[in-house]
Request: fold
Amino acid sequence: MHIITRRDTLKLGAGAIAAAAMAREAAAQIPASDATLNLPIENGASLRILRPARFVEPDEVLFRENTAKFTQQTGVQVRVDFVGWEDIRAQTAVTANTGTGPDVVVGWAEDPHIFADKLIELTDVAEYLGKRYGGWKFLGEKFGKRHGTNNWIGIPFGGTSGPVVYRESAVREVGYNEIPTDHERYLDLCRKLKAANKPPGFALGNAVGDGNGFANWLIWSHGGFLVDEDGKVAINQPQTVEALKYLQELYKTFVSGTLSWGDPSNNRAYAAQECFLTANGVSLYFALKNDPATAAIAADTNHAPLPSGRIGSPPQSALTINAMVFRHTRFPNAAKAWLTFMMEREQYDPWLSRCLGYWSHPLNAYDKSAVWESDPKLAVFRDSMNNRFWNGWKGPINQAAAAATAEYVMVQMCASVASGQQTPEAAAREAERRARRYYR
Amino acid sequence: MSVTATAAWKNTRQEPGWLVRLFDSKPFLVFICMLPAVGLLTVFLTYPLGLGIWLAFTDTMIGRGGSWVGLENFEYLAEDPVFWSSVFYSVFYTAVATIGKFALGLWLALLLNQHLPFKSLLRAIVLLPWITPTVLSAIAFWWIYDPQFSIVSYIVVDVLGLRDTYFDFLGSAWPARWSLIAANIWRGIPFVAICLLAGLQTISPSLYEAALLDGATPWQRFTQITVPLLMPILAIVMTFSIIFTFTDFQLVYAITRGGPVNSTHLMATLAFQRGIPGGQLAEGAAIAVSMIPFLVFATLFTYFGMARRKWQQGEGND
Reply:
């Protein structure tokens, strides 16, 4: 029966208020040191903000709620537009080139570095936040500061990493208690899963998040990298070839069709119990947990860091959203005040919590957020922003790194070997040729 | 009686002003009336096309202006296997899909030209694939070709039990290529069928009656009357169809995004991929510019090849 009475509505309302109150209380757990930032907001200021569309619903709801609170407290009118993931970089480029449009863009990690010359410096905001909330995590600093300087050009809001997502029962069934961290046993696990007809699967198609995540893991965990510290292309190396040879074996264990998988494909296959081990952000678990039809799968699901292989720490980055303020804004202080406001614990913690940590925090103090205690299966996401890797590792974060990622240079190198179209040696050479085009 | 001198009526005409003369002059009027159209064409066609061609010779990236680099982009593309694979697949896709569309479309048109019950309703239904937004039908095909949830696989494997494993439509190069061609043919048939049906209806029935009296077989009637008289419209429709197919973007982009491993990139999708997500605006423009010669050639070929009078009227070469 789905008849909602007036009394129910009242209860619901009261519940929502209580939940909100609890969230605010919870925010008080976040330790904060004293720091001051003086930003006199311009008279009659108004802001336009652009950010990527949500993947989990509360992301948008809380983002809008927090922004509305900002308007209430400061009187600054703010309009937030959500655009598709593929479109936001093109729109940011137009904004940067024409000098009109949104004042603040919450874009992807590399974006402030691409448009650095068109941005105002955010060092004051970043240093205030760092001081107040226990310092920035590794990727927060990496993506926030202009390469080789201490000048902040972006304020990373959070990042989502893609650790291993697996069915505990399946992994136990084939004799493992946890996900191994070395290549040999990981391959063995996948082979046994395949033999048990519970195959793993990783995206090898042109998938922005999952495809790059898997390809980067494969190469990085074998000690390979696309470019060196100076941005010189270094993909055509023995480590890369070894990684690709490993892939030839690993690929045999995959569920069929992974060469055409996009970002949502592994989520669907996992939810349909066709695939029992993959890599994904928290969104997969979030969706399974919130749908009564799949709650049983969620209960049997767990996360583990990607196998670190030869490199020591889990070789993965975090898909980060990074805010920048354009020079053409007429209200730089209002923009900075909005950024600061959104990152303060009263706003940030409810956002983080209700998204189940989807955009994992870049500031150390939020390690204490209740969300990380709320479900032990989320623990692996807590340190997403402390990963030591980024797209285009070990090189500088710049346009070339963004282009090589968007062009799927690494993904297609892997896919061409997995599909048998190219030998590992030829694929590494081809990737080198393509990467040189961007890093010139 | 007094005689009043009446003012002599003068037979002179007011000389019209220069403005009136100007607006009476035919060449000027033609010029003036064309101006809005010229303006629209310049703003919306010539300028973007010119800009696209200009970009192809620069090194512009998204977010950064470029400078003239001459043929550098084309030189890079000339040794880029992905580009050549996209050229090959564009030509192959266009050729196979066009043949498929015309064979099936002509057949459908001939069927619809018969006297059938519910003729109008049937003709309306045939148009459905054409009027569905491409992206919607592309998403439908995306599900049909899904490796895990394909309806085709479900029927063949789970219902009929003819196979043990699901089809992997998009997982390797050739199956993916053929799958996209099938989707394109499905979408293109109605356009061809309806246009050819219109052509069929302009053929006078008396020709068929005369042929019948002369004892012509149905095949003879088809080859001697229908085909020659249909040729002019066939040429036009084929020209359009080739252009639409060659420049197709939505189907491929929505279903495979050019994958697996770039094997289904058309020149149009590759141009977009390199230009917008990849940020290499100039290289994308160079790929788009490379499409122009193919389009011009295809247009001239169908137009001159099929619209010759010999075909239409049985005369000699002229």
Notes: Confidence is low (pLDDT under 50) at residues 1-19 of chain A.
